[in-house]
Specification:
Elements: H1 2-10, H2 12-17, H3 19-28, H4 45-50, H5 62-78, H6 83-87, H7 99-111, H8 115-127, H9 136-152, H10 156-169, H11 176-188, H12 208-218, H13 225-228, E1 233-236, H14 241-245, E2 248-254, E3 259-263, H15 268-278, E4 283-284, E5 286-288, E6 295-297, E7 301-302, E8 304-308, H16 314-327, E9 337-342, E10 347-351, E11 365-372, E12 378-379, E13 382-384, E14 389-391, E15 398-402, E16 416-418, E17 421-423, E18 426-434
Antiparallel strand pairs: 1-2, 2-3, 3-15, 4-8, 5-6, 7-10, 8-9, 9-18, 10-16, 11-15, 11-18, 12-17, 13-14, 13-16
Family: Belongs to the P4HA family.
Function: Catalyzes the post-translational formation of 4-hydroxyproline in -Xaa-Pro-Gly- sequences in collagens and other proteins.
Subcellular location: Endoplasmic reticulum lumen
């Protein structure tokens, strides 16, 4: 444990940007900490208290450990990572996982009903039996599960190999000899073909938009020249005096619906101030219930956020005025600025920013401005599955798009999501603009109804 902490302290921020390191650190401070006994007499009260049953609140909880495991599972799913890639640390900055680390992930997946995922991690744990400590209880559970799983998908020879190893490990293990004989009989009579069909249903729902979302996140979908050749970069100004003097740098990403990137619209000083204001009051991000309007937690959105009205700080007011200058829209009915941090495996599944029904639809979100407050080493892009558009997170830029047609009808092509952060962290700020007050600023375009 001490060796791991020494490595972490050399560059704590860089160390924790790797999701494997973060998982291992949380595991050390939850499960493994309970196994440590301090017998040294000359030790401070602070250290003694930190390993007692009454741990300070700063220590991670089992809920934090579950969140870290879910983050790794999410990254593996979206980026199609092999278990060995994750177990080897996802690049040079990550620590290698030991057998018992892989076991914890396999056990977690088994508990949440992901049979295939559990088998992959139990297999990885099996391959790493020689790396680090693995308890007899863990070995027995791994071999039992792999034997049962491989038999069920028709790989009887593999099942026999696992059960034979278990029998050798624990000769008096109940039912092992019976299972071993059973598998041998199947092979003897050459009936293994009866068991070759995969009888385990996939725990993942097959949804085309979600599949496209993951492919876009992995960079497997790229637009061709015919789709991008008509897009332009230019300086733009509107009716505001500010934009006449200092026009904005605009990059077109999609024309219909309109999606653009404004470059260099948030300074490093402003970004650091927003982070400093947000950090003490960050809370788990929520989504709005379409019927009631109440905020609710959701597994689809994994991030922390805080909200700031214009009155909170002069910089918030400046940013709101800048959004008005950029978009030409009124901020009178706009929502407060939301600052969001996507940490370990943070993501937001494909969703719409507009409200489909209920009370919130009465004054809907006409447009979204999304400020990127950090560069992300790997991952963290904003993608539009129905359009095949990917917006990379670039510090100081802002994405802008309309969520509604000019007629006020909902634009379902604006489905978008935030890809999981694979390496690093992601900070953004959202400004959602409501449709009331925009009647003479964004007039109805007959072509938009075609």
């Amino acid at each position: 444990m001490n060796a791991g902490h020494i490595e972490a302290l050399e560059n704590a921020k860089e160390y924790l940007f790797n999701p494997v390191n973060a998982f291992l650190l949380i595991k050390r401070l939850t499960i493994e900490l309970n196994d440590i006994e301090l017998i040294t007499k000359d030790i401070s009260e602070h250290i003694l208290m930190s390993v007692s049953d009454e741990k300070p609140q700063e220590f991670p909880s089992l809920e934090d450990l579950e969140g870290a495991m879910n983050a790794l599972i999410r990254l593996q799913d979206v980026y199609n990572l092999d278990t060995s890639v994750i177990a080897n640390g996802i690049g040079s900055t990550g620590s290698k996982m030991l057998s018992d680390d892989c076991f914890e992930l396999g056990q977690h997946l088994q508990q949440i009903g992901d049979t295939h995922g559990a088998a992959k991690w139990y297999k990885e744990a099996y391959n790493r039996f020689t790396l680090g400590k693995t308890s007899l209880r863990q070995k027995v559970k791994i071999l039992e599960y792999l034997a049962s799983y491989t038999y069920t998908i028709g790989k009887v020879e593999e099942a026999l190999a696992y059960i034979s190893e278990l029998h050798h490990l624990v000769p008096d293990h109940e039912s092992t000899l019976h299972q071993k004989t059973f598998y041998e009989d199947i092979l003897w009579y050459q009936q293994e073909q009866l068991f070759r069909s995969n009888r385990i249903p996939s725990s993942k729902a097959s949804m085309s938009s979600l599949t496209t979302f993951k492919k876009l996140c992995r960079g497997e979908i790229q637009r061709n020249v015919s789709e991008t050749s008509h897009l332009k970069c230019r300086y733009v100004s509107n009716l505001s005096a500010f934009s006449k003097i200092g026009p904005f740098k605009l990059e077109e990403m999609h024309l219909k619906p309109k999606i653009v990137i404004f470059h260099d619209v948030l300074s490093d000083t402003e970004i650091e101030l927003l982070k400093r204001l947000a950090k003490p009051i960050l809370e788990r991000a929520t989504i709005a219930n379409q019927q009631t309007g109440k905020a609710e937690r959701s597994k689809d959105r994994v991030s922390k956020s805080s909200w700031f009205p214009d009155e909170y700080h002069s910089t918030i007011r400046t940013i709101t005025k800048r959004v008005a200058d950029m978009t030409g829209l009124s901020m009178d009915t706009a929502e407060e600025l939301q600052v969001v941090n996507y940490g370990l495996g943070g993501q937001y599944d494909p969703h719409f920013d507009f409200f489909h029904w209920g009370k919130l639809k009465e004054v809907n979100r006409i447009a979204t401005v999304l400020f990127y407050m950090s560069d992300v080493s790997i991952g963290g892009a904003t993608v539009f599955p129905k359009l095949g558009v990917t917006l990379e997170a670039r510090k100081g830029t802002a994405a802008f798009w309309y969520n509604l047609h000019s007629s006020g009808e909902l634009d379902y092509s604006t489905l978008h999501g935030a890809c999981p952060v694979l390496i690093g962290e992601k900070w953004v700020a959202n400004k959602w603009i409501r449709e009331r007050g925009q009647e003479f600023r964004r007039k109805c375009d007959p072509k938009d109804l075609e």
